[in-house]
Amino acid sequence: MASGGGYRNGNHKAQNLRVSSSFKSKLPPSTSNIRRSSSAGDAVSGRVRVAVRLRPRNAEELAADADFADCVELQPELKRLKLRKNNWDTDTYEFDEVFTEFASQKRVYEVVAKPVVESVLDGYNGTVMAYGQTGTGKTYTLGQLGDDDPSTRGIMVRSMEDILANISLGTDSVSVSYLQLYMETIQDLLNTANDNISIVEDQKTGDVSLPGATVVEVRDQQSFLELLKLGEAHRYAANTKLNTESSRSHAILMVNIKRSVSGREADASGEFDDTSPLATNFKPPILRKGKLLLVDLAGSERVLKSGSEGHMLEEAKSINLSLSALGKCINALAENSAHVPVRDSKLTRLLKDSFGGTSRTSLVVTIGPSPRHRAETASTILFGQRAMKVENMLKIKEEFDYRSMCKRLEVQVDKLIAENERQQKAFEDEVNKIKLEAQQRVFEAEQNFAEELKDEKIKCQMEYMDSIKKLEEKMLYQQKHPTNGVTDIGESHRGFATEEVSELKKLLQNEIQIRKAAEEEISNLKDQIIKLSKQELPGGSSDTIYLQKLLEEETREKKRLEEEVIILKSQLTFEDGQTRSYADRGRNGNSLSGLESLSSLTHPHYKNGSNGDRAAITNLHEQVGLHKIMSLLESEDASVQIHAVKVVANLAAEEANQEKIVEAGGLTSLLMLLRNSEDETIRRIAAGAIANLAMNESNQELIMAHSGISLLAMTAAEAEDPQTLRMVAGAIANLCGNDKLQTRLRSEGGIRALLGMVRCRHPDVLSQVARGIANFAKCESRASAQGIKLGRSLLIEDGALPWIVQNANNEASLIRRHVELALCHLAQHEVNAKDMISGGALWELYRISRDCTREDIKALARQTLASSPTFLSEMRRLHIDV
Ligand code: ADP
Ligand code: MG
User: Do 307 and 387 meet the contact criterion of CB atoms below 8 Å apart?
Assistant: First the structure.
């Protein structure tokens, strides 16, 4: 094996290649350069690193070997060790590191163990093992606790310090088991009860585990130190019990590190390219599992030689078995032998991954300086040299942490479920809120609507009442003023009248019955009186008086009832019957020249009544008796009077009745009413009746004889109602048409009365005034033509000219015609000419002669102008062509 002055073993070349290598630089980089993977194909080669450490001379050696030189000479700078064969020959060996007796514990840790610890933290398996003769410092190097001197802390203590400093206790975990292998039995140093722990190998991965061993999680250095002490104590106790020494057993500290790799670190590895957020969320975290084995082997010396003769051979064999099996395996690995007898011992099974496996492995071979143990030292050195040839394939132990991903996802799902429930609740609350609001709004809208409906209903009712009221008022007005707008409501009025008539008929029937009953009672009473007077009972006179009074009363009642019946009948006649004014016949009459009439003295629609109705009136008044009706005109009862005057007026509208009325004293009665009645309606109707009667010439004289003119003039002066004025004007106008009455009419104020009534601007009144003036002028012109009248026109005398001139061109054609005629008549009498010229009448006459639409009047005017010398001369003076 050795060769003088050169490298000793046949692997010299290979070793040479590794001379410059160091523990650090030759080890796989701890992070960046290793492609991390859980698959078998991504491993990197990593040779077992071996350092040699020389123990300082102990007291015994110092004393005993003081004169002898050490058997080894170290060249640490060259990482070489020279083993003296004899005084003249040395063998030189190269190691990955050579520690002199002065090497500090710290340096030994940092060079030998620290790179392995770092690899384990990165997810590799790692092994740090001490091999050497008993007493050379294996335990000192690995297991020294350094309680008294912290500088002496060994690899176990310093490794755990490093591990705890580099992991995060929140996500990572560190656990330890502490075992002893003695005579092919594995004992649990943390629990003495476990004294035969079996090794389990995973068939797929080949991983070795000790499921029976106590596993203690380490969270701090102090508790780890306690564990080490406990293990040490158990080891001592066990060895005492077995009557052996600790040097004959192997101590194995197993440290398991689990580290969770953050997503970013994992992404940096390039294994996860999926960038979608969902994929990131569901990417399982990576779990790295590193296992660190710190193995303090039993002494490598031969049993017999080391003074263990007292022990049973079996024990020695067992001790030799594990170590020699390890040696054989390492030899096989070093020589790339096809067969590695791993299964030969428990130690080799436990260290299966450490030599020829995936672990990063460092070995410290410890030697002593004493030449007395030269052979053992040489053997140890050779073991180290062979171990340096073992190549491991480092593989990261990394897996997806599905369990923690599952937990994380569960937490996320729980969060989402809670959030969903919250949102669901919020949504339901919102829906309920909206629903309530909507209901409230609908309710409010309904209320508002109901109120508005109520208001609208009230308004409609009010409007309805109003229109009903107006209608009633209108009808009332129509009843009072029959000519005004009657055509608008003629139909309804007729309906009303029909109803009224039927009501009156009923009343009449009633009254007739009452009268009959009263008559019967009277005759009864008469009979009783006769009986009583015949009996002539004493003291009966008072009864007789009473009965007479009763009889008188009954007679009065009878009279009253009779009156009432008459009134009712006549009223019925008046309302129901067809009446016509004198004017209907006035067209054929002599007084009006077919111009105008009081056509609407009574209700216009009565004009359309049937002949049957008219006959009924005649029958009725014949039945009741004219005298009776006339007498009612003087009744004290105003309502009786008004009905009576209506009946008389109605009768007076019929020419056939007029004579009879006058004969019965009706005219006188009517004039009396005009004089005495306080009631405007009565006066109006009386005036109307008088106007009708005044169509007859003899009646006209009669009216004059009863100072009718002054009565009419008085009424004209007092009345306000246009209808009354119209009637009065109509009556006077009729009187104006009588040639014989001219002077008297004028002297009793007839003309002035006519002119006075123009204060009322009602066209019906003005029309009657105009007719009266025209009639009067006609009579005057006739009289002057006959030479009866000589002087100026009485109309002019009474100041009618200005009004005549003013109304000569009145827009109402009826008024205009009368006035035009009046002008023509006045102009025919030469004595009027001067007044007419000065009054502006000439212009009007001239206009009539040119523009009048009535050809006869136009011709009359032209003729009149042409025949008057005064007018002609005036016109000539004004250069007007005739
Ligand atoms: P082993 O475990 O190999 O049997 P130990 O570690 O028990 O050897 O060491 C034997 C003795 O030598 C112990 O008292 C130990 O303190 C001491 N010793 C070992 N190595 C050193 C060293 N490098 N420096 C100081 N003392 C040491
Ligand atoms: Mg020891």
Answer: no
pTM: 0.49
The number of the ligand 1 atom at minimal distance from the alpha carbon of 296 is 2
Could you tell me the distance, in angstroms and rounded to a whole number, from the CA of residue 134 to the centre of ligand 1? 9
Residue 162 banded pLDDT, cuts 50, 70, 90: very high
What is the phi-psi region of residue 880: left when phi exceeds 0, alpha when psi lies from -120 to 50, beta otherwise?
Answer: beta
Burial track 583-595 (b if 16+ CB lie within 10 A, e otherwise): bbebeebebbeeb
Ligand 1 atom at shortest distance from the alpha carbon of 366:
3
Smallest-distance ligand from the CA of 59: 1
Does 581 have pLDDT greater than 70?
no
Q: How far is the CA of 231 from the centre of ligand 2 (A)?
A: 14
For ligand 1, pick from 53, 54, 55 the residue to mutate: most ligand atoms within 8 Å of CB.
55
Closest atom of ligand 1 to CA, residue 53? 23
Whole-angstrom CA distances from 133 to 113, 127, 247, 355, 739 are: 21, 20, 9, 21, 188
The span from the CA of 390 to the CA of 359, in Å, is: 11
Ligand 1 binding pocket (C-beta < 6 A) is 55-56, 58, 132, 134-140, 247, 299, 366
CA 75–ligand 2 middle distance (angstroms): 26
pLDDT digits (tens, 9 = 90+) for 532-547: 766 654 555 566 677 7
Atom of ligand 1 nearest to the CA of 134: 4
Average pLDDT over residues 246-259: 91
Tell me what the mean pLDDT of segment 403-424 comes to. Answer: 88
740, pLDDT greater than 60: yes
What is the percent of the chain where pLDDT is above 90?
38
Q: Which atom of ligand 1 is nearest to the CA of 143?
A: 6
Residue 245 CA, ligand 2 centroid: distance in Å: 9
Express the helix, strand and coil content of the chain in percent, nearest 5 each.
60, 10, 30
Ligand nearest to the CA of residue 373, numbered in listed order: 1
- Tens of pLDDT, residue by residue over 110-148, are 999 999 999 999 999 999 999 999 999 999 999 999 999
Collapsed DSSP state (helix, strand, coil) of residue 359: coil
CA of 150 to the centre of ligand 1 (A): 16
Is 568 or 177 the better-scoring residue by pLDDT?
177
- 251 burial type by CB count under 10 A (0-12 exposed, 13-18 middle, 19+ buried): buried
Q: Do 755 and 799 form a contact (C-beta atoms < 8 A)?
A: yes
- Evaluate if residue 329 carries a pLDDT over 60: yes
For atom 5 of ligand 1, the residue with the nearest CA is 137
pLDDT bucket at 444, cuts 50 / 70 / 90: very high
Neighbours of 471 (CB within 10 A): 12
Residue 165: φ, ψ to 5°:
-75, -20
Q: How far is the CA of 138 from the centre of ligand 1 (A)?
A: 7
Other CB atoms within 10 A of residue 544 CB: 14
Mean pLDDT of the chain: 81
18 closest CA partner among 59, 54, 65, 50: 50
